[in-house]
Specification:
Length: 71
């Protein structure tokens, strides 16, 4: 948390993939007032991993999740 938002504020929210491995990646999220040049209101990082539903063990992230540029 960096600063409060007001009810009348226009908010811009960004998300970017960071820290990619074969089984996990981070999603960095930020919220700004009015534009990405405005005040940073909140930021956070979500850690995501692909798990096998039966064993709950990590498994390789499918190419369709990584996008066209990754394999």
């Amino acid at each position: 948390f960096h600063a409060p938002a007001r009810l009348s504020d226009d908010l811009v929210v960004t998300a970017s993939r960071e820290g990619l491995t074969r089984v996990s990646f981070d999603i960095e999220q930020k919220s700004y007032r009015n534009s990405t040049d405005g005040d940073l209101l909140i930021s956070g990082i979500v850690y995501a991993a692909d798990l096998d539903a039966d064993t709950m063990r990590p498994k390789r992230i499918p190419p369709c999740v990584l996008g066209d540029n990754q394999s």
